[in-house]
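Field: COMPLEX_INPUT
Field: COMPONENT_COUNT = two
Field: RESIDUE_TOTAL = 496
Field: MODE = joint
Values follow.
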Amino acid sequence: MPHPPGRFPEHVIRLGVVVVLFLGSVVAIRSFVVPASLKEKGYHRTSTMEREAARPLHYAGADVCRDCHDAQYQVKSGGYHRMLACETCHGPAKSHADDPSTGTPPAPRTRDFCPQCHAYDLARPTGFPQINPITHNPMQACYTCHDPHDPRPPTVPQECGACHASIARTKALSPHSLLACTTCHNVPDQHKVTPRKVRAMKPVERTFCAQCHGKSSAVVGTPKIDVDSHYQKYLCWDCHYPHMPEAAL
Amino acid sequence: MIRRHALRRILTWVAGFVVLGFRELWAEAPAASEAEGAGEGPWYGMGIDVEKCIGCGLCMQACKTENDVPAEPHFVRTWVEQYVTQTDGTVAVTTIRPGEEREATPERNVLHSFFVPKLCNHCANPPCVQVCPVGATFTTKDGVVLVDSKRCIGCGYCIQACPYGARYLHPVTKVADKCTFCYHRIEKGLLPACVEVCPTQARVFGDLRSPASPLRRMRRMHKTFVLKAALNTEPKVFYSGIDGEVR
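Field: COMPLEX_OUTPUT
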């Protein structure tokens, strides 16, 4: 049937309404679903950058520590460690910097910390100070000889080892390394002046070793034996070399 | 004739709606990346002096602390590789695991050995951004490549696409994660955590556009290289003192 000119046919208008509704709903749903941050015309989504920038800090940065710890800073600024940040050794300290009452950052005092940098490794640059942690004064904490804030190489204490170097080197590797020579040797002062005339004393009896190694000894952490039944007819140093007790004679 | 008129009007209306609904998609897209020197504001990069690195691994530990990267499993945003070249030409590469006893470097028949710290190169032409199907990874105005952790679907395409192995799937959030140059620190004028703790200043951070930045100075004083330059990714991490076997 012909329809009047200048008017849309009825079925086209209905179709048009459906199309308009569909497109309208697409626009409406998109405006809800697509986050505002995606509609920005810039380089990037600012919200992500803001979220990244708002992450909590853990490391306060080297300049902050100086405000309170200027004395340590002055010591450090003259030493080999002048370029190290405080937090390199003391760990993240942002919470301490914000509120010192929350606790102090730890100071590493164990022997496994300093060798992270200073143990010998072929790949480390030549000239970088390196030691062998096994032979370098075993069991002694690094800070007893080196001030971590000004770690200049200390003068090596040359006491008995100045003359008895071989014994000192042997003892340094033994379980007795932390014992002073005078623990077992009674050394008169005159021995250092005229060593051959005035001798240092050595222990003479089994009971001396038993002070630490006897079953009834109160010393903690030493190997214990029953002195009365343990090879009574021998002296301890007949079998055990006191400067390296575990070595086989 | 009349039908053609009607069709034309319908098409006009439809086109109008399409324009209204999708006009934001037609908005002028910004340039994906800018070359060094062009543009304004900072354009961050890092310099690494391999001859200064002592392989202590403190940077790895600091990065994990600062960015809350779980200690285990062993995923890292930055890591240090040790290269050992033998006199017969064989090259062994191992990654430092800080705090763990590592196999001592062999002392015999070694030609040379050195440490190479690695991290995201924040490429000016980043392959990871190209492949991301949801646009979750992008370059900020300062040249830092970031991941939108809320938008990332964890498909792992970017991890495959990165030629430097700098990305990993975060074991907790299950989305792609990578070095951000400590974006939360550099925004506040602080140094990235790895640069902050490096005891030998092997890492240098700075603005490539600022003539006074330590990075520009480092690049003036050293001949620097980028990793896998042939891939045309235009990395912004510059290495000095590396050997040809480093890739």
